[in-house]
Amino acid sequence: MPPRYLSFRCSLPWLILLLQALILIRSLLSLPALGSTYHLPLSGFPGVDHIYQPSSSYPEFQDVNHIVIFGFGFFLMVLRRYGFSSTAFNFLLVVLGVQCSVLVGDLLTELVFLSFFSCSLAKAMVGTTAVVISTGAVLGKANPGQLIVMTLVEIIIFNVSRYINWRFLQVPESLTLMHVHLFGAYFGLAVTSRFPEPPPGLDKHRSTPKSDLLSMLGTVFVWVFWPSFNSTLAEFQREAKLNTYLALAVSAVAAFMLSALTSKDGKFRMAHIHSAVLAGGVTISYTAHRIHYPWIAMILGLLGSGITVLGSHCLQRCFNPALKLQDTSGVHFTFGLPAVLGAVAAVVLRVVEEGTETQWNDLSSLGYLIFVEVGAFCQTISIALITGLITGLILNIKLLKAVHVSKYFDDQFYWEVSFKMVSH
Q: Where, by residue number, does the polypeptide cross the bilayer (predicted)?
């Protein structure tokens, strides 16, 4: 067995064991029993009822669980020789990340005296989506140890970013979680920019019809359950589900149309469909519960699909080399740009709503609301980029045994793979 394989085997299991032990010890010291969490009457304490009462039912949590584990697990299977790692590492990071997210939320709850976070599995699962999105950017280049460290750092920073939005900008707690797409995409892009670029002759990052088909299966699965993702923590769940579905439907139709229009031979491209059909759900995530007219949701779905397809067709060649973006699975165009568009749409919708209600008389109040929307967006993306760059530098230290560029995008470095699968 080569030395790198031996050192990898001797370090990773102990890292996982140490992390799980720390989580277990922390949970013994901090988390209350399930019975006290859900059945203890807390009505006598101001501000506590809405914190510890479950905000979503189990079926809705189950939908989110399916999205993050099954849907994204197959969504990331875009590389022809990295299928085992794509699905299995995603599962490992999710189950570790959810535990960490619950405990980080509980720690922040203690620090702010029961006034912000709650020990909710639904919120923890939604927050872990940021890690899954970031993993798509570094897919095939980071080893499991690096991915675990990235998960821990990202969950902590994302929750701190949520707290800043809630505490200083007065953003509702449920909406702070909807910045998960924006944070995950740009955190991952910043991390992957610190990794060495693969050599020009390396072709293992290409896809095959089989990997494209499995990845599209995950995309369809995420598409089906995405309305639950946007509505599970929303105040008006019925409106959120309806608007999200309409946006997704229009973005899927537009994806096929724009794919045929932008390709040279007029054929559909699976890469376009794979990315653009989800763009509508990402774009409307900030405003799904506030939209009262279906045509607004449909327009947002169309714009989201358009920015995804046209962005990957036109901007990728310009921005990726200049900014050193190595976006393996296209999270920038699937989640990043649609999230930016959704933030702009939230500002516009806020201006229209408040302007109509106040007849433009109280401009100071309107300006403050716009400042809050823009401030939350700028704060989220700034922290994601800055901490992502720092995290990328940390992941490349010798202690974490970074993978050599010749071993990128290859299952054989981590898994027992048959000769037939390797040759394929």
A: 91-114, 120-140, 147-164, 176-192, 213-230, 242-261, 273-289, 295-319, 331-349, 369-397
Residue pair 56/46 in contact (Cβ under 8 Å)? The answer is no
Q: Note whether 274 and 212 are within 8 A (CB).
A: yes
Structure tokens at 100: 């960490």
* CB of 135 closer than 8 Å to CB of 90: yes
Spell out the residues 6+ positions from residue 235 whose beta carbon is closer than 8 angstroms to its own. 172, 174, 289
Specify the residue for token string 């989580």. Answer: 23
CA distance 253 to 243: 16
Other CB atoms within 10 Å distance of the CB of residue 200: 6
- Confidence class of residue 357 from pLDDT cuts 50, 70 and 90? low
Residue 31 DSSP symbol: P
pLDDT digits 0-9 by tens, 55-93: 456 777 889 999 999 999 999 998 888 999 999 999 999
Torsion angle defined by CA atoms of residues 70, 75, 76 and 81, in that order, rounded to the nearest 10 degrees: 100
Rounded to 5°, the CA angle 10-12-18 comes to 105
Residue 415 forms part of a structural domain: no
Q: Max alpha carbon distance in the chain (Å)?
A: 75
Question: What pLDDT is stored for residue 71 in this prediction?
Answer: 95
Residue 354 lies in a domain: yes
Residue range of the domain that includes 215: 60-402
pTM for the model stands at 0.89
Q: Dig out the tokens for 77 from the structure.
A: 């299977």
Do residues 80 and 206 lie in contact, with contact meaning Cβ atoms separated by under 8 Å?
Answer: yes
Check whether 234 has a pLDDT greater than 70. Answer: yes
Query: Using CB atoms within 10 A of its CB, is residue 21 exposed (0-12), middle (13-18) or buried (19+)?
Result: exposed
CA distance 280 to 299: 9
Determine the straight-line distance between the first and last CA of the chain, rounded to whole angstroms: 23
3 state SS of 200: coil
Tokens, residue 253: 């139709």
Report the alpha-carbon distance of residue 164 to residue 387 in Å, rounded: 15
CATH number at 80 reads: 1.10.3430.10
Say whether pLDDT at 36 is over 50. Answer: no
**What is the C-alpha to C-alpha distance for residues 402 and 83, in angstroms, rounded to an integer?**
20
